[in-house]
Amino acid sequence: MSLILTNTSPTHPPFIFLEDVFAVVSLDRENQYRLSVFSDEAVPIFGPSLPCPPVFENPYLFREFLLVKLINGEKATFETPIFAGKRERTLDMLIKDLYSEHMADTKGPMLNRRAFSDVLADAPRSTRLKEDSRQIEFVRIGQALKLEAIVRGDAPTSQASATCSGTVFRKSPWEPNCFYPVFPDYRITCADSWNENKLVIATEEGTFVVEDGTSHHQIFDRSLQVRQLSVVEAHGILLLRAAHSSKESNRIYIFRLSNIESLDASKTRSNVKGQRLERTRGTNLYSISRSGGGRLRMCVAIGRRLQMYQWKHSAAWTTWCAPNDNDTVEGFSFYWELNLNETPSMLTILDNGYSNCSPSPGNIQVCVGYKNHWDIVNGHSNYAQHLHTVELSRPHLVAALDLYEDQEIQLLLCYNHTCHFQKINEDSSTSTDFDFHWNSVPTDIVCAFPYVVAFMNNSMEIRLIVNGNLVHTMSMPRMQLVAGKSDIFFATTAPEFFPSKTDRLAVERQQELQRLSPPASPNISPEVRPLRIYRIPITSLSKSSNSNKSSSSTESPSTWKSTESKLSVPDAPRVSRSATSSPIPPKAKHY
C-alpha cells in the first residue's frame, strides 16, 4: 500500500497498478486535512470508516486515525486471493522443509503418530492406479469414522444420543418447522426468501410477501404475471421476470426492497412501467450470480440470444453507502451479447473467482442447458465448450448446480432420474462412477452440503452428495419447493406437525366435533385446502449444527398455534454453501 501527499484535489491515480490500497492526503485552503482511500475490489472491507465529509481539523487526531487506517489496510491486503495463495505456498514449503529436516531419519513411526498422508499407499506411476488407491483408502477410513459415529449416536440416521441421560430420540436434521400454515391455495409460479423471516411468493392471483408470524399481504395484483423472481439482499433490490399475460413478452423489472416494505396497497401493471428494463423485452429466462460475490451479474435469454448485465455498484459499496444507493433500472450496465444455435432451457452463471486483475464481465462463463445437452459459453471471447450430452430418447433436464473445490468449478448436472458430476476442464466422456439416481423424476433439486435434496410431486428425497446414499424420504401431498437460497422452504397441503401431546388432543377433539356435526355442502370441494409452508434450516443440515456434542436438544420444533403467537426463529449464524461438495478426487497441485 502507498501514502500519497498532494496539494490538489484527490483523484484516482491511473499510474498505480501494483498497489492494492493507497491513501491520498490533501490540504485544503482552510488548512484542513482531507483523506481519500482507494482499494482494489479483491481487498476486504477494513475500518475505521471515513467520516462524512472526510475532513480533519486536529492534526494529532488525524495522525492517529491515519495510522490505524493504514495498518488495517495492510492487514486486509494479506487476505486477497493473490497474497493468500502466496502465503499458503510459503507455509507449505516451510512445513515440507521442517518435515524433511527432522523426520528424514525416522523409520517405521508408531501407529498413533502416523500422519493421514502416511496411511495412503505409495503413489504408483499410473495416475489411474493412484486415484484408485486413494479411493480405496478413503472408503476404508470413511467406513471406520462412520462406524464410530454410529456407536456414539451422532450419525444422521442414528436415533441414539450421546448424552449422559441415556438413549433418547434425537431431532432429525431434516425435520421441517411450520413457517406459515394458512397460505391461500393458489398455484405458486416462483418464490424467493427475503432475509431470515420473509418470503416473496408469486402466484397466478398476484404476488405476496409472507412474513413469519404475521398475515401475508399482496404487493402486485394479477395484472402483473410474475414468472421468475430473485431477492438480492446484498444490493437491496428485487428482480422480476413478468408480463401482463402469458401471451405478452416478458421483461425484467427492478424494484428497491425498501420501497416494497413501505407499500400500503398492491401495485398494478400500469404502476410499474418505469421499473422495467426495456432492452430485455421477450425474455424467456434469466439467471443471476451466486450470493456472496463482489459483483451482481445477470444473464438474460431472449430467444436464442444471451445478454450479460452487471450491477454498477459492488456489495461492499452498497453496505457502506446504503442511503446513496437508490438505483433500479439504471443500475444494470450491458456488457455483451451472444447468439446461440438453440433456445436455452436453463442458465447457470459460473463464478471464476479472481484473476490477476480485478474480475471483469469478460471472464464470466455461463452453463447453458438445451433440450438434451449442456454447453459452457463466454460471450466476450465467443468461447464455447460442449459439456455433457444426455443419451436418452426422452431427456428431461432438471438443474445444473455449480459446486466449488479449491477454486475449481464442478457442476452437478441433473436430468431424468440421474445426477452426474462434471468438471468443466475435463472431457465430456468422463466416467460415470460418481453418478447417483433418484427413485422418481424430481421437479427441483437443492444442494445443502453434505446433502442434496430433490422434490417430487408428492415426496422429497434427501441423499448424501458424496456417494448418493439415500438417508431420508418424506411423503406429503402436492409438495413443491418454494425457495432454497438459504433455508429450504417448501409448500404442501399436509397438516402441520403437532409435537406436543396437548396439541394432538386439541386436534383429535376438533376432529371428533366435526364428525358429530352435520355433513358439509356437496358443492364444497374437499381438495380446497390452504397451503402449509415449511422450513428446513440449512444450519440443521450442515455439519456445523453438530459441532457441539456435549448437549442434545430435545425441544420440539416451532409450530404455528394462532395468528397472535409469533414463531420463534433461532439465532444461528448463516452457513455457506460454498463447501467441498464433490466426490471427484481433486487433481494434484504443484507449487
TrEMBL record:
<dbReference type="GO" id="GO:0051056">
    <property type="term" value="P:regulation of small GTPase mediated signal transduction"/>
</dbReference>
<keyword id="KW-0343">GTPase activation</keyword>
<dbReference type="InterPro" id="IPR050989">
    <property type="entry name" value="Rap1_Ran_GAP"/>
</dbReference>
<dbReference type="InterPro" id="IPR000331">
    <property type="entry name" value="Rap/Ran_GAP_dom"/>
</dbReference>
<dbReference type="GO" id="GO:0005096">
    <property type="term" value="F:GTPase activator activity"/>
</dbReference>
<feature type="domain" description="Rap-GAP">
    <location>
        <begin position="1"/>
        <end position="98"/>
    </location>
</feature>
<dbReference type="InterPro" id="IPR001180">
    <property type="entry name" value="CNH_dom"/>
</dbReference>
<dbReference type="Pfam" id="PF00780">
    <property type="entry name" value="CNH"/>
</dbReference>
<protein>
    <recommendedName>
        <fullName>GTPase-activating Rap/Ran-GAP domain-like protein 3</fullName>
    </recommendedName>
</protein>
<dbReference type="Pfam" id="PF02145">
    <property type="entry name" value="Rap_GAP"/>
</dbReference>
<dbReference type="InterPro" id="IPR035974">
    <property type="entry name" value="Rap/Ran-GAP_sf"/>
</dbReference>
<feature type="compositionally biased region" description="Low complexity">
    <location>
        <begin position="542"/>
        <end position="566"/>
    </location>
</feature>
<feature type="domain" description="CNH">
    <location>
        <begin position="185"/>
        <end position="489"/>
    </location>
</feature>
<feature type="region of interest" description="Disordered">
    <location>
        <begin position="542"/>
        <end position="591"/>
    </location>
</feature>
